Amino acid sequence: MDMGGASLQIAYEVPSAITFSSPQEEEAGKSVLAEFNLGCDVEQTQHVYRVYVTTFLGFGGNMARQRYEDQLVNSTLAKNGFLTTETGLIEEKPYLDPCLPVSMSDTITRGNHTLYLRGQGDWSRCQEAVRPFLGLHNGTMSPQGIYQAPINFSNSEFYGFSEFYYCMEDVLRIGGQYSSDKYAQAAKDYCTTKWSTLKQRLDNQLFSQQADISRLKYQCFKSAWMYEVLHSGFRFPYDYPSLKTAQLVYDKEVQWTLGAILFKTRFLPLR
Question: What range does the record give for the signal peptide (predicted)?
Fold first, then answer.
């Protein structure tokens, strides 16, 4: 799995035989299932892999936050009209955002309108607030209800890259083996920490070298988003033991370009 700023990807091997519940589901499934032969010739069937792979545009950490903020602005204006004395539209009466750290002040500007925010740091409420942005439709994620092939959770191993790793490591410092309980508690503790304390910790270099002020601001939101993507979107069991977040696998960086090169050069002589 890979989560960037704008999009989210998942890829995993699936059985050669998949049962579809309807012709429509079968049609949708064919567009996200592919067979790859990584052998040296087309006859080497032992190197054929059937892979489910898809991209969720707008489901990256930054775009998810942007969609969340857009809705905050739209709902505030719809509720209050243009009465500038109402909650969120004046600095003295900010909107209490559960997904920002406690006591942190922020603003959102859209066109001629500015929305004033103040962090509440409420992990549970933040989870509830971000869940609708998964666009869950008949148990699958995205507004279009993209087909998701079944995952054998009893016999699989997943790696989470980019935002999955940054979310766990840059601030929370628990990158690597994923435990939903440990992660949720660390995220909750972070969200409920005062903004002034978090900035002091950053100044004292208590976070990773990659952490910056932007990471601190949106860590609470992104940690809730990642959690919901995993468990509500991709439906990973809360006790799933085989997810690791990483930057490298066997000391090598894994990116989609590596897969493309393997596929394009699969029939070239190995020598």
Answer: none
**Euclidean distance between CA atoms 259 and 161, whole angstroms:** 15
Residues 35, 92 contacting (CB under 8 angstroms): no
Q: Distance between CA atoms of 2 and 154, rounded to whole angstroms?
A: 21
pLDDT in tens, 177-211: 999 999 999 999 999 999 999 999 999 999 999 99
The encoded tokens of residue 124 equal 């549970």
Residues 46-93 have pLDDT tens digits of 888 889 989 999 999 999 999 999 999 998 888 766 555 668 888 899
Q: Are 3 and 64 contacting, i.e. CB atoms less than 8 angstroms apart?
A: no
> Which H, E and C letters describe the chain, residue by residue?
CEECCCEEEEEEECCCCCCCCCHHHHHHHHCCEEEEECCCCCCCHHHEEEEEEEEEECCCHHHHHHHHHHHHHHHHHHHHCCCCCCCCCCCCCCEEECCCCECCEEEEEECCEEEEEEECCCHHHHHHHHHHHHCCECCECCCCCCCCCCCCCCCCCEEEEEHHHHHHHCCCCCCCECCHHHHHHHHHHHHCCEHHHHHHHHHCCCCCCCCCHHHHHHHHHHHHHHHHHHHHHCCCCCCCCCEEECCEECCEECCHHHHHHHHHCCCCCCC
Q: Which domains does the chain have, with CATH numbers?
A: 2-62+126-263 (3.30.420.150)
